Model the fold of this input.
Amino acid sequence: MKCDLRGGLGLLFTLAVGISVVLGAQEPVAWVPKVRAWIAAHQQPVVRELLDLLARPNVAADRPNVRRNAEHLRGMFEKRGFRVELLETAGNPLVYGELKVPDATRTLLIYSHYDGQPVDPTGWKQPDPFTPVVRSAKDGREIPAARDLTRFDPEARIYARSASDDKSPIVMMLAALDALHAAGTAPSSNIRVVLDGEEEAGSPSLVPAIAKYRDQLAADLMVILDGPQHPSGRPTIAYGARGIARVDLTVFGPKAGVHSGNYGNWISNPAQRLALLLASMKDDDGRILVNGWNDGIEPLTPEEQSMLAAVPEDSSAMLRAFGVSAPEKAYPKLQDALQYPTLNVRGLSSAFVGSGARTIIPDSATASIDIRLVTETPAGAMIARIRAHVAGRGYHIVEGPPDDATRTAHAKIARLTIFGDGTAAFRTSPMNPQARSLAASLAAVHGVEPVQLRTLGGTVPISPFIRELGFPALLVPTVNFDNNQHEENENLRLGNLFEGILTVAAILKMDAPVR
Amino acid sequence: MKCDLRGGLGLLFTLAVGISVVLGAQEPVAWVPKVRAWIAAHQQPVVRELLDLLARPNVAADRPNVRRNAEHLRGMFEKRGFRVELLETAGNPLVYGELKVPDATRTLLIYSHYDGQPVDPTGWKQPDPFTPVVRSAKDGREIPAARDLTRFDPEARIYARSASDDKSPIVMMLAALDALHAAGTAPSSNIRVVLDGEEEAGSPSLVPAIAKYRDQLAADLMVILDGPQHPSGRPTIAYGARGIARVDLTVFGPKAGVHSGNYGNWISNPAQRLALLLASMKDDDGRILVNGWNDGIEPLTPEEQSMLAAVPEDSSAMLRAFGVSAPEKAYPKLQDALQYPTLNVRGLSSAFVGSGARTIIPDSATASIDIRLVTETPAGAMIARIRAHVAGRGYHIVEGPPDDATRTAHAKIARLTIFGDGTAAFRTSPMNPQARSLAASLAAVHGVEPVQLRTLGGTVPISPFIRELGFPALLVPTVNFDNNQHEENENLRLGNLFEGILTVAAILKMDAPVR
Done:
């Protein structure tokens, strides 16, 4: 079914225009008005289904409640004809659902997660983050008896933990299936759904689950429904995400802090030496000086460059919001900056500062560093480059606190404390045919070019899962960018919920004929 | 009396040998054996007088108890014929005593302090830091009924708050007067004593007291009895002390921490920039690069150089104790290092390090800096040099948190937070005739050259008092160097108490005839 149906939207895309999607006089997609009408008529059941899901506490560590979520989700998917299984892992179960579509030759694996960030109810405006409330955008007041409304202001928002991250995409998906069914049409792909119950805890059970469930998880394309849409409000595709490695760099001074008067100018200062080390790694323009930092990264192709340039970004507004007058000179454009690995000092510590500071030469000084990785620069190689750089500056590198013999033998002693194995980056080629089909479908259905991100700057815990499964993956984020993700008063703009249904419908219908 | 009697010891010193004191075949000082015999016979009353004084709590903030100390001291000095006054100040009183000596033409002002550091009894081996105990050096056990002993092992120690800092020098002084009286001889100078009740709180009342009590405080030489003797155990003179200025340097980043993935490589990092700033101020060899840092400091004269070289110091042992393999390359010799102002990073802070670190570009980074001053480099000038250096690196310097307009206008923003006005250095010329007399007397009485320190590396709160009074001052520290000063289990080695009586006697008898 895939091959003979692909011409309709596939022709919208040509290699000649690189990764952009030509919108022109193409025919409107026949099912779209029907789906829009269904959404307009079914705001109440969609909102109610989400409110009911949000009322179930879902912090990953709260395993009994997480399982209650899983059982509830089982019911939601079974209602739509999915064959559902809870795939047991060492941690919380994966909710797995499969929906076969007659004649479909492609299988999509759709990933979302049903756990949420831990909550501190004292920071919320409502009594309980698991008792969702709907608030008006105009005055921020709670809308009473919101369950009874049949139409909502798209600017109104639901406030609850996981409202945007990541329960609403699950509801969008089920509503999209209902809407397509009501419109008398079917998805163009077989659908497999996997819902993670530990994403906010780093998805520790995902990769181990592959060994046990590889057959169920196999697909042609993975679509990750997670994260915030581009602030422009346009449909968004991200073809990758940077990875991360974390390392603390400690420079050792005297065994214990020594009096800065009695020994100042004579005993060297580890905080000063740490500053010199860090300064040797990155210059005032943001250029990273560690040898080989960007090794293996090819220059961007003209297509990739035009993809980055096409991302609509108001740099001045962003800088103003951050209170920063200018970006790093090394990477004045944000999208460029995200294509390369970082070397970021995320924290510094040595003795004390402020009015409680003691007049000492400290015993040690530590910089906590995170390195955002790209696919060409894996964690191990980057840690090795830092290690070589530190050693190259005359440091003896220790694995633990230095003993007396080590202290006697070496004038400069440093330690690298590595936190875990890191999370790898992933990047799917935007030229991948499945990716092109998905982009074209989004463009045709929404009538606007999607924002296409070659990579997210951040890291998704699902990366190792993607790499291990070995087939292409991309992210389609749908929720409002200002959703207070991971914070108090997490929220979902209802307009994003309703438009998200259309977005998921476009995914489910990719490569289908226009009418 | 001073002029015709000074030849005896004065001749021991000649300009040709610089500041060293020639010990040769000079005549033994007649009163010394008598004073030694007195000390040997009077260990019990001396120790008892100290134990009684130590039993009085003396934390500066505990004003009623501090006043009880003052009243007790009044009695101790009156017993020796002093005219005593409590000089009232805005804080605790100064205990002031005056003893006129017939025919004396010189007046010494002897300074000690009778307050002590705050105590945390939980850290002490004894129940109460104000119930002194005497412990054997052999097994560290408490010696029972120590008050009843008439002879003490010089290695035994008294444990109590202020045992060494600074009540024992007061008892040494009074015992020295008793011993000289018993030996049938008198001090060679008029004695004025001022005992500070707020030294451990920074001596805030000393300088203001001068306006009111300048006449009482006038003298030819101030002798400060405070601090630990040189570890060699030899009598020690310090002709000065470095001052101190404290400043925190903060570099500002975005208004709030931003996601290191979403914005890494694009928003510049204040911790990195702080590292670059600090690195620009001092190199890996410890050389300070701030413009004009040592301006006004003359090269050391050959006499000064030989004075520094004569200080007995086991650098390797010190470095081993600190767990450091080598000193700063800029100042490989400790005594050299102490002659110059420092630039010491006493603390660093930015966001978090360790397993709790967040993956952000921090909003700011702060280095806490202390600058040890010498007389040629006052606090204000040094802060101004740091300010000029920071500005010279392109920073706009703010006085408080930057507002939006400032953030928009300036790419690099830093703040200097200055803590107080600093404490000035003081330095008395070792060539000062009074200083030479004192050094010669110590040499002759102890039969060993005193260790002479051109300056202490640390700072004494009394510096502004010295500078304001305007006559020469020097320190004669007497207590054991390993006395746990300012810490739990502060202690005094009894050998230092007994030898200290002889040291104070040497001061009281300076320039007197040998027999």
Observations:
- Chain B has two domains: 2-12+42-241+425-508, 243-297+340-423.
- Chain B touches chain A through 85 residues (CB under 8 Å).
